[in-house]
Each structure stands twice: as C-alpha cells, then as structure tokens.
Amino acid sequence: MVQGVVSGLLFGGVYSLMAVGLTLIFGVMRVVNFAHGDMMVWGMYLAYVLSTRAGIDPYVSFVVCAAALFALGLLVQRGLVDRIIDSPHEMQILLMLGVALVLENVALLAFGPEPTRVRSPLASATIWLGPVFVDVARLVTFVVAVALTSGLWAFLFRTDLGRTIRAAADNTYGALVIGTDVRRVYAVAFGIGAACVGAAGALVSPILPFQPPTGLSLSVASFNIVIIGGMGSLLGAFVGGLLVSLAESLGAVFLKPSLKELFSFSLLIVILLLRPAGLFGRRSA
Amino acid sequence: MRWTIAASVVALVALPVVLSPYVLTLFILIFFYAFLGQAWNIVGGYAGQLSAGHAAFVGIGGYTAAMLSIELGLTPWIGMFLGGALAAVLGAIVGYLGFRFGLRGFYFVLLTVAFAEICRIGVSNIDALGGPLGLYITFTGDPRQFQFQDGRVYYYIALALMLVATLTAWAIERRRFGVYLAAIREDEVAAEALGVNAFKYKMLAMIVSSFLTGFGGTFYAFYLFSLQPNTLFGIPLSVEIIIRPIVGGAGTLLGPIVGSFILTPLAEISRRYLGQGGLHGAHLIAYGVLLIAVVLFLPEGAYPRLRRALTRRTAGA
Question: How far apart are CA B188 and CA B181, in angstroms?
Fold first, then answer.
C-alpha cells in the first residue's frame, strides 16, 4: 500500500511532464494534441535506438529525444496545424487523429509489435528509504522530470519568449496588436509541448515496457490529467499528473493488471462528466 | 438524379452475374462499410457529433446475435434486431451522458472512445464470451443460421443493408428532423434559441445510428465466422467506420457510399499487397495521411465536390 503510494508518486513525475506538454499546446492554441501519446512512444523508441546502436544511456539521451521531438512538434505545427488553426474544432480533431494514426503505425512498421524496454544500469538498482524500497530508476526519472518541469516553468515565467507565449495564450488578438509574431509563438509552443513528451518518453523507457499501441494509453492518461487539472493550466497538469499516477498505481494494487486500462478509461469518463473546469482551471470553454 | 440512382441500383442488383468471386467479396465489403458509414453519418455527419467509438455498437450487435445463436439456437435473423436494440441502449446511455453533460467536440470524442474501449476490455475479460480469443461460429450452411453456401447471398444482404441505411438517412434528411440536425450541427446555441430541442434530436440521431450499426454487427460476425474483441470493438474498426463518410462528405446522403467506393478497394489492395510480411499498419498509415489530406484540402469531402463538377458540366453542355 505505502509501496504503491511511493512508486505511484515517483512515476507521477513523468505523467506531470507529459501533461504539462499537452496543456501547454492546448493553452496556447486551443488544439488538442491527439498524437501526444504517440509522440511519447517515438521518444521511447528514439531512446531505444540510441541505447542499442550508440550505447547512450536513456538518462543522457533524453536531451537528444527532447530536441528531436521539438523538431517534430515544430514540423507538425508549421506544416499541418497552422493551416487550419481557424477551422472548426472538428477539423482539428480529425487532423490530429490522422497524425496519431500515422505516428503509431509508422512505429509499428519500423519497430514491430513486440513490447520493448531500454536497458539501463540504473534500472535494476534499488535503495531502502526507511520502510519502503525505492527503484533508483524511478527516483532519477522523477527528479529529472520535476527538474524539467520546473525549468519549463522558469522559462515561461522568467524569460521574454516565455512571457510572450503566455501572452499569446491569454489573448491572441491582444498579442497580435502589440506586434507579436503569433505564428512563431505557436510553433515554439507546439515544439516545447512535444519536447516534453520526448524527454518523458526517454526517461520512462527503462521502467515501462512499450510497444506502438502504448501511445493510446499514454494519450488517455494525458487527457485524464489535463482534464482533472483544468485544460490549459500548468499547475493543474503538474498536480494532476501526480494524482492520476497515484490513482493508477493504487488501482493496480487492487485490480488484475488486465483491468488497469479499464480503470483508466472509467476514470476518464468520470472526469469528463464531472469536469467543468478542473482543479486549477479557469472557467472557460 | 433520381433516374441515375434508380439505374445504379438496378445495375448493382444485376452485377453479381458477371463478377468473379474476388470482386464479389470486394463489393460486399464496399456495401457493408458504406452501410456502417451511413449509420455513423446520421449522428456524426448530419448531427455533427463526432462519435469515435462506433465499433462498440458493431461489437454489441455481433456478440448478441452470435451468443443467442450459439447458446440458444436462436436464429440471427431475430438476433440481429435484439443486437441492434442492445446497441441502441448503449447508444442511448453514451448519448445521454454526453449530451446531458454538454460534452462537445473533443470531450465527446473522448467519451465515445472511452466507452468503446471499456466494452472491448470488458468483453476480453469475460470468459463466457470467449475472452480475448473470442467466439467462433461453425459453418453449417444453414440459411436460418445466417450462413450461405453462395457468396451472392451475402452480396445482396450487404447491398440491402446499405440501401436501408441510406433510405433511413434520406428520410431523416427530407423531414424536419434532418433540418433540426443540420441546425444543431451548424450552431447549437442558435438552434436552441429558435426552439429546437437539441438534446432530444441528438439523442434520437444517436439511437437510430447505434441501432443500425448494431444491426449490421450481426452481418459482420456471421460473414467472418468469428468474433474477437479487438476486431469488433477496437479503435481500428471505429476508424474504418468514420473515415469513409468523412472522405466522401460527412452529412451528405451519398458521401458514405462515395467514400466507401474510394476507400474500400484501396484498403483491400494495401492489405493484400502490404499486409503480408508483417506490414500490418500500412493501410492505417494510408488512412492517417488521407485524413490529414482531406482536412487540409477537401474539408467538405469528395461527394459535394464531385456533384458540383457534374452539375457544372451538364449546365455548360
């Protein structure tokens, strides 16, 4: 039980990072990144390739994965999302579903359906902290994920570009009026959102066995988190990540592993119905 | 227009005389997916409520008819109505929750996906329903058990399903109901301000759509002779259902049919030539690219564009 709480909270760091990426994209351009989990899976496979081909540990290569996913996010935004940013929401949903399909199935084509895991010397080490034992891998993952989230925080609140991004999110029209290059802001925000899952994917790759369809369950987890936390709220995504991870890990203690997914989807329905604005969300559509 | 349609129906009825078995199978799939697309079109196209979990209705309909046939020997000809009714019950539940709680766009998509996935995982974990391996139907060739020696019978049933769904959509389109649905799709708040009971009509559209889809689930199960949770309830089938009307033109009467005539042969070809040798996801990549392309370049779908091109030519001649 206590064990479940600890490992749930530690895993939550990754969930938080993933959800912060999603909520940033949504908050800035009101687009739901349906391909979020699939982008994360690409981060995992990239870490896998770097580890098997070049022998780079995922706890180092996450920087490369984040950069690669930043480029992917930028590309998706500039090439696709940007063209329909003013279209009805249905169109954006369909577009992102298309992107998700392509990403998942290209991964399936490239890497096959077998579950994979990235080896790291840290993954087998454990230490005892008082009465509970802690995976070193989980602990490192948690620390790095929280550090990255805090770094993103500092970037958004302490730098000029970060402030511009938040301004464009708050009031696109106003940002345009004062001469902001909103298209550039959108591209950077989408890139950062994707970079978050790139890093999160690499960090979690030694802990969580993955295969191409894992993207869907990661997307569902991200949706759960950002809806709980309030769409567009960074603090909400961070706290929500810890909460959802905790709930899933406790669910796994009491339920058969095969029913874990059932639990996540039921959680999603309950959250959707009780949604209105989330924990830290502002009331808005 | 009317004569063109009548002539095409007559041609489709006469067609099996000259078709090879392989092409016959292809046409069966074209009709069946056009049928599923048309059923989805009622709620997804006309009413504009993007359901991304319609596979669940196929699964419920198929499993109901198959279980009744295997356990009780009840003929699927009756079972398909019961399957449709059960699917409609689920449709009503999903619709009630979604519409009563005001879930729109993205939130409604998530709700429908979540319900379909819960059904899939649930069925995979129920041993009485065959668990993850599913159910198999033994071939007896008995027409009362929805089994036929002659492939042409499946052809006519699939054609009939497509026509029934299309007639239903046509009947909705030309009644007040259809106008209300279009109003809700275009601007729900304005429609309600004019006194349209949006909740009621969205519910009706959802129930009709899920009933038809569940009804067709029987055909799917008995045509394949097997039911697996991942095939019947899975997201890939939901994608198959949605993509045809969207490519053909969502919310138009002939959109799902045009979409199916374009996409089903494409999917079959890619499955036949790329699906072997482990290239499983190849046609889903093609679907993804197509979805992106349609959204970017042809947001209203192929059929409206086609119709304009045709009328312009006749007007010019």
Answer: 9
Position A284 in a domain: no
Q: Is position A114 within any domain?
A: yes
The distance of Cα A274 from the centroid of its chain, to the nearest Å, equals 23
The alpha carbons of chain A give a radius of gyration, in whole angstroms, of: 18
Q: Structure pTM? A: 0.87
**Chain A interface test: which of B121, B187, B271, B287 (most A C-beta within 10 Å):** B121
Indicate the residue of A262, A266, A272 with minimum beta-carbon distance to B103: A272
Q: Which residue of B has its CA nearest to A263?
A: B118
Q: What is the CATH number of the domain that holds A87?
A: 1.10.3470
Write out the residue range of the structural domain in which residue A42 sits: 2-274
Give domain status of residue A280, yes or no. Answer: no
B56 to B70, B165, B302: CA distances (angstroms): 21, 18, 27
Q: Given an 8 Å threshold on Cβ–Cβ distance, is B290 in contact with A93?
A: no
Question: Minimal Cα–Cα distance from B239 to chain A, Å?
Answer: 9
List CB contacts (< 8 A) between A83 and chain B. Answer: 296
**Domain range list for chain B:** 25-233
**Interface pTM, i.e. ipTM:** 0.84
| pLDDT in single tens digits along all 285 residues of chain A | 677 788 788 888 899 999 999 999 988 888 889 999 999 999 999 999 999 988 888 888 899 999 999 999 999 999 998 888 888 888 888 899 999 999 999 998 888 888 888 887 776 677 777 777 777 888 888 898 889 889 988 998 889 888 888 888 887 788 888 877 888 888 999 999 999 999 999 998 988 889 988 898 899 889 888 888 887 888 888 888 998 888 888 877 777 777 777 888 888 888 888 865 655 655 443
Residue B59 contacts residue B229 (beta carbons within 8 Å): yes
Q: In this structure, is residue A8 part of a structural domain? A: yes
